[in-house]
Amino acid sequence: MGCCNRRCGLIAGAVFGALVAILGGVLIPLGNSVIEGTVEKEAVIEPGTTAYENWVATGAKVYRQFWFFDVKNPLEVLDYGARPVVIEKGPYTYITRYLPKENITFNPNNTISFLLPMGAIFEPSMSVGSEEDNVTSLNLAVGAYSLVPIEFHPALEIMIKLSKSSLFQRRTVKELLWGYRDPMLKTNIGFFSPYNGTYDGYYNVYNGKDDIKKVSVIDRWRGKRSLTFWNDTYCDMLNGTDATSFPPFIDKKKPLFFFSSDICRSVSASYVNTMDLKGIDVYRYSLLPSTLASPVDNPDNHCFCRDFKTTKNCTLAGVLDISSCQDGRPIYISLPHFLHGSPSLREGVLGLNPVEVYHDTYLDVEPTTGFTLRFAKRIQVNMMYGPSANITVLKKVKDYTIFPLVWLNETAALDDETADMFKRELFSRIKLLEMIQQGLLGAGVALFVICLISYFVVRRNLNNLLMKA
Question: What topology does the record note for this protein and the membrane (predicted)?
């Protein structure tokens, strides 16, 4: 009778273990459904959600660091046509994106409209000097001579002489960045002038309420569903988000698409590796070298090539001519130090040294929520100048030169307080649920196996006793 009870107990234990294991298995899809539901609810951009609180105003401080290219041989370039030699000078750091979005409007079609105010506050503690430091750089007014038809170059020569302008000028950091009154043009010009008090947008983005896969995706920019800069359907596409967040449940096998008004186009970033950020796993995404490749190597870029002469029949890689969205000014965008660019770019201006770890753009995205928790947007602003038979300061110039003015690193990272909130409010719940699932499954399987083995051991021993009897 005792053996029967023992065997029955072991069978019951095995059955109970199996039921526990089944419960743990059932909880896996159920738990995943709960996790997905929680994330989707908090990822919708509407008042009261985690996404909305982080969307209205950036929690982490966003910095823009600037490095200038200081020309060391301006007279040799003017008098003998020597190649410019530059030395990097910086960083000069500013706090940006400290203003919350304005004119937020919720639309009936599950989109939100808003303006992004622009502002910059100098941060001396993170800078190598003051805003009054001087830099020798390209004269923007003279460099923009390409805007003037060649038949008017004699008149431009008179204007240059009367204003005592030259190919290069010495200005303060503050003047070069935010503007100064040019003696020849009689107006304010600067690398980023005007900036403070201006806006980016209007943006119109999906809030994700009807389809979480569309959350943060841009519907319109400046009232249009496509750009008007490139005169091509492909290049004028508005793709993805503004890169501050993406739809949740990221698939690292697929690229992330985002639009940047700084470069007047949409781009994609690809998965590089998984990293730890304050105890949170994030996917690092980076721009591929093909992003700014020449149309020879990346035919998709054919519509970004605007000038056959200055781009050497569209074989020049690493730069993007954005004059069409800069009122015709000969501005070229690249990665810092012409990273991934054609060797001729670094041969035309000496002193450049691209290093991927310092000069690449990347996004660190939390894959479950789609939130960008750390990023570094690195862009170099360049201006083109070239030879002219009628303009004295350009007579010695031998070829068209894309000259680096400044490069910037706009960066932000998740702070400790927000990281703790993430781990406490979301990831701790997910981990607890996963632990319960795995615990039930593991304990159930273990109990089932132990009871089953014990049952057969008891049964074998009982059979041996019966045989001996």
Answer: Multi-pass membrane protein
Please, which residues have CB within 8 angstroms of residue 7's CB and are 6 or more apart in sequence?
A: 455, 458, 459, 462
Walk along the chain (469 residues) and give the pLDDT tens digit of each residue.
445 555 565 455 444 444 444 444 444 454 455 567 677 788 899 998 888 888 888 778 899 999 999 999 999 999 999 999 999 999 999 999 888 999 999 999 999 999 999 999 999 999 999 999 999 999 998 877 777 888 888 888 999 999 999 999 999 999 999 999 999 989 999 999 999 999 999 999 999 999 999 999 999 999 999 999 999 999 999 999 999 999 999 999 999 999 999 999 999 999 999 999 998 999 999 998 999 999 999 999 999 998 888 888 899 999 999 999 988 888 999 999 999 999 999 999 999 999 999 999 999 999 988 999 999 999 999 999 888 888 999 999 988 899 999 999 999 998 888 788 777 766 655 665 556 556 555 554 554 456 555 555 555 655 555 555 5
80 belongs to a structural domain: yes
Q: 237 with 348, same domain?
A: yes
- Strands 168-172 vs 102-106: parallel, antiparallel or unpaired: unpaired
Residues 364 and 460 in one domain: no
Q: Are residues 23 and 73 in the same domain?
A: no
Domain annotation covers residue 208: no
Contact 30, 202 (CB under 8 A): no
Q: Which residue, among 278, 273, 275, 308, has the nearest Cα to 294 in the 3D structure?
A: 308
CB atoms within 10 A of CB 19: 14
Q: Which residues, 6+ apart, have CB-to-CB distance to 402 below 8 Å?
A: 310, 319, 332, 334, 345, 348, 349, 382, 383, 384
- Give yes or no: residues 273 and 372 share one domain: yes
**Residue 26: domain span:** 2-40+427-468
CA distance 214 to 245: 11
Residues 442, 429: Cα–Cα separation, whole Å: 20
DSSP 340-368: T--HHHHHHSBS----HHHH--EEEE-TT
Q: Which helix (H) or strand (E) holds 377?
A: strand 372-385
Q: What are 321's strand-pairing partners? A: 332
Is 215 inside any structural domain?
no
**94 and 128 part of one domain:** yes
Cβ atoms within 10 A of the Cβ of 322, count?
21
Closest CA to 364 of 346, 382, 376, 347: 376
